[in-house]
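Reopening this ticket.

The earlier resolution said the output was attached, but the attachment link was broken on my side. Pasting everything inline this time so it's all in one place.
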Amino acid sequence: MQPEVEQLIDLALREDIGAGDVTAEYFVPAGVQSRAFMLVKDSGVIAGLDIAERIFAKIDPCIEARQLVKDGSVVSHGTRVMEITGSARALLTAERTALNFAQRLSGVATKTASFVSLTKETNAQ
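Inline output:
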């Protein structure tokens, strides 16, 4: 991953969790393992899964994140786009930042696809 992206991820994690995720540490017992899915809430173009995967790995290298679709895929409500397994505390700690990136990048990809569609029958470049 590009150094600029790594730096942006580090900044986002620092902002979201600071010195630690007190909620996860308080409510989730140590050692609990879990499996989660990232689901799509609206139709569009998915983007940012590589970054989401990297965020989970930064929080805990033992987390296994598996992309179920490729970035750039058109998806609809309820589509599972990623499966994540590992420490429940780590999943909870990373999920907000991972979702923020995926939501923002998917929004940009979806809007871009709509503009491309609108200009498809024109000579616009």
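Reporter confirms the inline version is readable. The first strand starts at residue 33 and ends at 39. The chain has a mean pLDDT of 95.
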